[in-house]
Amino acid sequence: MRAIGVIEYGGPEALREVDVPQQPLGPGQVRVRVTAAAVNPTDTIVREGWRHDADRSADVADVPGMDVAGELLEVGPDVATDLSPGDPVMAVVVPQGAHGAYREDVVLPAGSVVRAPAGTTPAEAATLPMNGLTARHALDLMALEPGQVLAVTGAAGAFGGYVVQLAKADGLTVVADAAEKDEELVRSLGADVVVRRGEDVADRLRELYPDGVDGLADGAVLDDKALPAVKDGGTVATVRGYQGDGRRDLRVHAVWVRDVAERADLLDGLREQAESGVLTLRVADVVPAARAGEAHERLAAGGVRGRLVLDLT
């Protein structure tokens, strides 16, 4: 089966078309024909060997990718679902070795797969699962109340943009960062206040909220540089495992999408919000899968707004 992966870890040039075995379909699982796979920053560090398995055979490819959209092919035993073969679906994938999204079909837990939002293309649907679930999980962990103030760094990115829109739907006041060229975009996503982005964004947030904001979703991965923006007793969600510096009374949550990867209820809720217009599905470009290295280069260069998506048809 055709996939895009790496035999030797490295830069974007290490990505290549590879042949991987079709995965067996077991109890509680479904098979999805993949037509679109979004390209995320996590994919680049998988490509570089971040999740390297020392027991992986040298001739077995490591396949990146955490978002897919396509068609449901098969439903395994012991699966309770209203989906049928042929239905358009989207899913979140937790990569492990050859088990990644950049492949022609993939077997997944049934809880990781839901119907694609009505009226969307596969490329659009593929932008939602991983970043949308991560954003939802971050907000649920912070557990802010309607009317409280949430700051969002990296608000023009996929994770940050979904946090802004979900937070507004939850009734929060949102103050978000943006480069000058992205201010209009971030306002269009629903941010109540926009401040200039940068490593000193905490200072600008404190100017607006002298006591500090109630919560912070740190999509820009500023880590300790962002913490001064948050009031004592406030809460922070991070996306690369950062757990705080321990110097202040803050509740810091390292958010991992794998913890909710089989929460079909959450993913289906995101589908509903995409259909109702609460969430905006942003595709920067669709790239043939054979040019995945090019997509990784563009992502690394920065400035991509929305998700690059690989076409696996």
List the topology elements:
Blueprint lengths: L1 E4 L10 E4 L9 E11 L1 H7 L19 E9 L12 E5 L12 E5 L3 E3 L6 H5 L2 H14 L6 E5 L4 H12 L3 E6 L4 H6 L4 E4 L4 H8 L4 E6 L11 E9 L12 E4 L9 H13 L6 E6 L3 H10 L5 E5 L2
Helix pairs in contact: 3-4
Describe the 3D structure.
This protein is α/β, with parallel strands linked by helices. It folds into 2 domains: 2-128 and 281-311, Medium-chain alcohol dehydrogenases, catalytic domain (Quinone Oxidoreductase, Chain A, domain 1); 131-258, NAD(P)-binding Rossmann-like Domain (Rossmann fold, 3-Layer(aba) Sandwich). It has helices at residues 41-47, 122-126, 129-142, 158-169, 183-188, 201-208, 264-276, 292-301, and strands at residues 2-5, 16-19, 29-39, 67-75, 88-92, 105-109, 113-115, 149-153, 173-178, 193-196, 213-218, 230-238, 251-254, 283-288, 307-311. The strands form 3 sheets. Strands 3, 4, 5, 6, 7, 14 and 15 form a 7-stranded mixed β-sheet that branches. Helix 8 (292-301) links the parallel strand 14 and strand 15. Helix 3 crosses helix 4. The radius of gyration is 19 Å and the shape is globular. The mean pLDDT is 95. Keywords: NADP, Oxidoreductase. It is an enzyme of class 1 (oxidoreductase). GO terms for molecular function: oxidoreductase activity. Residues 10-310 form the Enoyl reductase (ER) domain. InterPro entries: ADH-like_C, ADH-like_N, ER, GroES-like_sf, NAD(P)-bd_dom_sf.
